[in-house]
Predict the structure.
Amino acid sequence: MHTATEERIVRPARNVLGSLRLPGDKSISHRYGMLAAFAQGASRFSNFSTGADCASTLKCMEALGATVRHLDEGIVEVTGVGGRVTPSEGPLDCGNSGSTMRMISGLLAPQQGSFTLIGDDSLSRRPMERIRKPLAEMGARLTLTDGHAPIIIEGTPLRPIDYTTPVPSAQVKTCVLLAGLQTPGLTTVRESVRTRDHSELALRAFGAELERTLDSISIRGPQTLHGIEAAVPGDLSSAAFFLCAAALFPGSGLILDWLGLNPTRAALLDVLTALGANIAVLNLEEKNAELVGTVQVTAPRDGLTTTAITGALAAQLIDELPVLAAIGPYTSGGIRIRDAKELRVKESDRIALVVKNLRAMGAEVMEFEDGLDVPGGQRLHGATIDAGGDHRIAMAFSVAALRAEGETLIQGAESAAISFPEFFTLLDQVAER
């Protein structure tokens, strides 16, 4: 299925100023939506993510018997199935959302019935063996198509496991925990690098008990979840584009309100600080175990400096690396990224696309199997950008375009709607031309 691509022209800016409240965090919205639909009773969420991916999660859960109502002012009300789904008539369409497909597989594996999960072309190319392996160890009956979707699940009772993830992945961890939630005994997931903990925090918010050590998380099943009321904090991965944009202009000042500041996601603030940006976090509070606060960013008077992102940091920043690479040419000493091979199997090969688009804008860049070197002190010119159907590439190069000479044409701009439909409107709101 190939839809018409939307083009956007991004003109250079003189400055970035203002204050924004961003749409709800995608990672948290996925989990709240899925858990609410599985729980007993009703849940209500304000500021639920407006992205197409989270809509895919809600649609799948509706097909499995949950009730979803969209009320005024962006409030979503979900009535759950009380731990027992009803197999749907047709396949469950996960759209472009790897989060939906990988997490829902764990939820469905111990249920009664037969389930087929499908996705769009991009999702159908993404690796699914990483969830099949632990679920099969639990006794699940899961059939992949050449290691990919479509996935066919024949629900069956499972046994608990103690599993170490070969590649640290929050989605794989969640998949196993959701299966463990319904499985008698203690299921443990161990990881060498601590991944985002939104699932653990969300499970706790819905009333589940989990045990955490430095490198593991365990759940004793079966447990029952109960509906909650929550406001979803603003998405820090979406904020990344605005924070990086503000960091490019010496006179800038940007305030982001009600932003999710989960420590497993906030590494971006450390990297921007290392580059010389001035970042202040105000009114930090805890809501449903998630940290929320206001972030204020101003750019350094003499411009950004230089940094290297490697090892565990690269894994934590996997979604933010494209925009950091895109602003690399404007730093004084450049940006070096390694240990980020996972970028090659995201919605696109993000390393290849970042390199291609930086070169289109006249930048010098060196490509490596697991990362890239972007030298600093470069001047970029407007160009035609190929987003490759990848929302983060479209948005990253819209940010780079703000400091380029001349206009930039983003081809495939509609892909931004997958995670962040309001992106271009909000960017225009804070960019002074």
About this structure: The first helix runs from residue 26 to 38.
